[in-house]
Predict the 3D structure of the following.
Amino acid sequence: MAAKKLTLLQTVAAAGVFSAVSCWYGFMFGRESARRELGGIIDDLRNSSSTGSAASPDSHTPSKR
């Protein structure tokens, strides 16, 4: 039985493809996670601003002295 040998170029190419695919999935997962989190924050802000419109818009900014 002849053993199949990978050349250095084939090994580097396979590692590069794996790395690119891994980075792409990590980027897309992080992007989706951030979108979901920011969507929740935006909804919370919309709900709080519609129910608590008596609060002044400058109440969250520190006072300048």
Remarks:
- Residues 40 and 46 are 10 Å apart (CA to CA).
- The longest helix spans residues 8-51.
